[in-house]
Amino acid sequence: MARHPKASIRFDTIGSKEKAVAIIEVSVNLVGHEEEIALQLMKENKRVKSVLQKLGDREGVERLRKYRLLAGDSDTEVTHREHGYVLKVDPQKVYFSQRESTERQRIADQVKEEETVLVMFSGVAPYAIAIAKKKNVKKIVAVEINRAGTDYARTNISLNKLDDKILAIEGDVRTACEPWYGEFDRVIMPLPKSSEDFLDIAVKCLKPFGGYIHFYSWGRNPTIFENAELAVKERMAELAKNYEIVNRRIVLPYGPHTSKVCLDLKVS
Hints:
The chain has helices at residues 34-44, 101-110, 126-134, 147-159, 173-176, 199-205, 226-239; strands at 2-3, 10-15, 20-25, 48-54, 67-72, 78-82, 85-89, 116-119, 139-144, 166-170, 186-189, 211-220, 243-255, 258-267. It folds into 2 domains: 2-76, GMP Synthetase, Chain A, domain 3 (2-Layer Sandwich), CATH 3.30.300; 95-267, Vaccinia Virus protein VP39 (Rossmann fold, 3-Layer(aba) Sandwich), CATH 3.40.50.150. The longest helix has 14 residues, at 226-239. It is globular. With 268 residues, it is of the alpha/beta class. The chain has 7 helices and 14 strands. Residues 1-7 have low confidence and may be disordered.
């Protein structure tokens, strides 16, 4: 997340050199100056065509956040570029984090040739596309409950010429994944909120001999991985499944003393 040098605000930028959207967080001492800050930001960053202000946390099953348009174009759809692929996205309609681009590459590096991969809560398909661009996978299934997210996912799959590798499905993972039980070498669960409630589905989707699950959760310092490890331990005991934590990773900071974390699990 960048820091604006003059206005002392924090902001993310999504998009390209031609058109980008800035998403800002305004501290208490700057309340009332939001529009002035937005105009200054656009003046100093010519590619920024719209500035949105965060109005709260993500809510609901579709993980959407409310925004206020402070300045610029009301059309906030952009084409974001990272690591050799493109992603069309509108942050007002779908969840997307450009700050996880490094994490997407880390996961893609672990995928083996000819694997079958399931991405739960897949959004506009950034994880699926990152993997398919880097590895010769057999198949990736991306499941997203948000209709706009699924529409963008299908658009992005076609834009990156990956229609033969990735299937985007709209639906709740609890029901949409049922036809795919026992089909996957690897399951990715990039939604950190209450992800333990879906571990049973992830396990069922693995092949009978097991596979890998990338489990995301929230952690707080100083015991940053404790909550995630405890949640996994309890769920795997209920499922009578053996597992090994092969890697632990702090993905990115979320707030004071809080971070998004990932446990890479080998399940047998």
